[in-house]
Amino acid sequence: MLKRMTLLVALARETSSLNGAWRRRGVYRDRSDMPPLDAVAAAVGAAAPWAAPKWVWAFCWRAHARLLPALHARDGLTNTCVNLQVLWLKALAGDDAAYALLPRGFRLLVAPPLRRFYPRLHHQNIKLRAKFLDDAVRDELRRGDDDVAVVALGAGFDGRAARAVEDRGPRARAADVDLPEVIAQKRSVLGRADGYGAELIACDLAGAGVEAALARAIGNRTRVVFVVEALLIYLDAAAAERLLDACRGAPCAAVSLCFADRLAIDGVDEAAAARLFADRGFDLVRYLPKPGLARHMGVARRRPRRGES
């Protein structure tokens, strides 16, 4: 009898697992707080990813990760915090700057003629957050003059900061801050691109020296737009709070934070996100949750200090 019960329990667990694997990703009928991917895509203004079963998404992610060592056998790049994998996905999603950093031979796999044949899975999901951030940074830059720095924290191979300040005048500057090994890898491949307009700053954003790194990145500009894309996912709650505190204390008159990341809150409730930022001295001014690990997207601005308008 005991053996039969054990077998039934095992079968029930396996059936539940299989049912979960066949559930369409990005569709949460049991969660009214989480908008489906197609609704997020409509809000952002991009095509929606394919709501394929979860096992399809998982298979494609693992297969891509296993291909990376072969694709980068010559340049020796490694997939630190999945930065390399995201680089390929952004190139596949149409990011020309990302495409330029790929190995010249293998990059043809995601060249424009072939991109249309790939199903809209991970690369399109990443495109949603990338477009949200691009638009958010652009909107924040419009709020003031060009004496501004755009600083990508945990930038990986992304070129958003450099792209954002193009044609904005000599006082506008860009900086990418990331782990020393990531910055070294990025510097090693920038020769594939035609110039790069951001300063590369090596710093462990979960360790010491963050305030000094941010001050260097800002470079005495009067305002800063920080960009955080899938960085807080890799930090514990205490380190994430310290980083937000360092951003709040940035040595300039105005601070904006554009994020597409995982906040230390339960679920995706906007009020909870607003409280988290309020506790760190920011006002949440825009918010859009999205299925996935980087499920919280938005814009926060530092509250005016005493004596500031």
TrEMBL record:
GO terms for molecular function: methyltransferase activity. GO terms for biological process: methylation. It comes from the Eukaryota. Gene3D superfamilies: Vaccinia Virus protein VP39. This is [Phosphatase 2A protein]-leucine-carboxy methyltransferase 1. InterPro entries: Ppm1/Ppm2/Tcmp (IPR007213), SAM-dependent_MTases_sf (IPR029063). The keyword Transferase applies. It comes from Pelagomonas calceolata.
